[in-house]
């Protein structure tokens, strides 16, 4: 793993684990000192996190961890609850054994990340499961919209979620795959709706004051 990739993974994990809370400022000089690299290297990592919407970079203000509003969090989950169950019938028209096997590999990866307490990986893997399912519907417009909603959900789960938000408490994805294998359309739609509602209800929508982050303790070598 490259040094840039290692720094990126450490910072992403810190955001998802709430060690870097929403709104926390990310000064390049203090981060470069903590990681023992140049400010240019830190800037590249911050720009990558900004492209993924985990970080905001403002001119003359620097970088900070993105803070989605509570209203945005609820709107994103409500949008997914409206759309994703409705894609199930079209998805089933394309469903086959090969798809089932591919998605079961994804579920295995999710479980491995959950067992290893890798919350950042769990959030990214569950997002991939959902938008890859949406792509099978054949409706590319809605599938692209779901993909964007899943990316925004990743940030929301990092800001307001708990381990239960991406674990079995909200429903094991393998249960959905069993239902899809049996072609039970209405049951699959109900499962997806309940699954997303559980994720929404797992969010802890409360604002936390910015903390004085000790970057040397968090990332120092």
UniProtKB/TrEMBL annotation:
Keywords, comma-separated and alphabetical: DNA-binding, Transcription, Transcription regulation
SUPFAM superfamilies the record matches: GntR ligand-binding domain-like, Winged helix' DNA-binding domain
Keyword Transcription regulation: yes
Gene Ontology molecular function terms on file: DNA binding; DNA-binding transcription factor activity
HTH gntR-type domain span: 1-68
Matching InterPro entries: GntR_C (IPR011711), TF_FadR/GntR_C (IPR008920), Tscrpt_reg_HTH_GntR (IPR000524), WH-like_DNA-bd_sf (IPR036388), WH_DNA-bd_sf (IPR036390)
Pfam families: FCD (PF07729), GntR (PF00392)
Protein name listed in UniProt: DNA-binding transcriptional regulator, GntR family
């Amino acid at each position: 793993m490259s040094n840039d990739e290692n720094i990126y993974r450490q910072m992403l994990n810190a955001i998802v684990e709430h060690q870097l809370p929403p709104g926390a400022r990310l000064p390049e000089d203090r981060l470069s000192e903590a990681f023992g690299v140049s400010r240019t290297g830190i800037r590249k990592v911050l720009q990558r996190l900004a492209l993924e919407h985990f970080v905001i970079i403002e001119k003359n203000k620097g970088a900070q961890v993105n803070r989605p509003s509570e209203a945005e969090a609820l709107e994103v989950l409500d949008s997914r609850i409206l759309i994703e169950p409705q894609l199930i019938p079209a998805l089933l028209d394309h469903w086959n054994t090969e798809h089932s096997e591919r998605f079961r590999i994804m579920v295995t990866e999710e479980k491995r990340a959950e067992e290893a307490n890798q919350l950042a990986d769990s959030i990214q893997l569950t997002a991939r499961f959902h938008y890859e399912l949406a792509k099978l519907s054949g409706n590319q417009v809605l599938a692209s919209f779901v993909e964007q909603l899943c990316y925004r959900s990743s940030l929301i789960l990092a800001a307001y979620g708990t381990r239960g938000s991406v674990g079995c408490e909200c429903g094991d994805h393998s249960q959905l795959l069993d239902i899809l294998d049996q072609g039970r359309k209405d049951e699959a739609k109900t499962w997806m709706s309940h699954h997303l509602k559980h994720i929404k209800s797992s969010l802890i929508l409360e604002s936390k004051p910015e903390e004085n982050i000790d970057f040397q303790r968090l990332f120092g070598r």
